[in-house]
Specification:
Length: 326
Amino acid sequence: MNSSAREFYYAGVEACRQGQFEKGISHFKKAICSAPEVVEFHQWLFSAMLAWARLQPPESQVLERTSLPFFSIVVCSVNPQKFLRLKQNIEFLIPENHLEIIRISDARNMGEGYNRGARQAVGDILIFCHDDIELLTPDIGYRLADRLGEYDILGVAGTTWLRDAKWDSAGLPYKRGQVVHALANRTGFTYSVFALDGAVSGGIQALDGLFLAMRRDFWVENPFDEGYDGFHLYDVDLSFRCYLAGHRLGVCNDILIEHRSLGHFDESWKRAADRFAARFGNRLENHSTGIIVCSNFRLNETEQVFQLFRALRRFGYGTDIRPVDS
């Protein structure tokens, strides 16, 4: 740890002890910029953000907007209980006269299932999502509708530099977005913060497939590749292919989703990664090396999830870190 990072860190701790959490946040962010590999700095930053958020007055209510398109949501799910839970969650957030939910229970692979569901869909906007998520942002429909005039594909996690088949392997400051993980074998929540720079991050090269939204006419021209075995790389393949074609990809940093899985990097994933590398390996760009650091924060209560979500939207995170050899 260099001396300037240490000084910023101690200044941040002292500011927090005095209840000056916004000042502490500023110091911890400077410490991270000086020594981004130190996990403790990131944890102190999240703690200071949480403390700041607890002191804030309630956020204003979401304003109802007048127009909402029709959404078709496609889910590949072999588990009736998971699907029902997701269906009830979505129906609570999007009015039924603007919504259809299509379940594919026998997909050969994710790309095939999504394409089959999309062919059945009648909605103006298509959403492809996993069956083990919960949407936590009340006005998610309006946010997506507004932004799909500017972006071709939207997600909640992705990267501005794809270095291999695993979208998050480039590290900071290239990663974008956030996801809350709630796992059956753990109590509470693990808040995974990738990086945030405003309500929507542009310049995205690849997106995570837990949640993808696009206009129906865009999918018609850019369907999923059905050649990947199993349920891997359909998302990175589609998003990177669209990036290479000059389409506009974005990560919504102000949409929060809970995910009940961390993914499975098994032999099936390795086969899919080999296929991706053979197809796109010569199209991957070289960049300065990113910072690989654990930016997960453990929380006990749902209220804390929304408090940290609010602070991250207010202060941002991670995008001002300099790569190793820049």
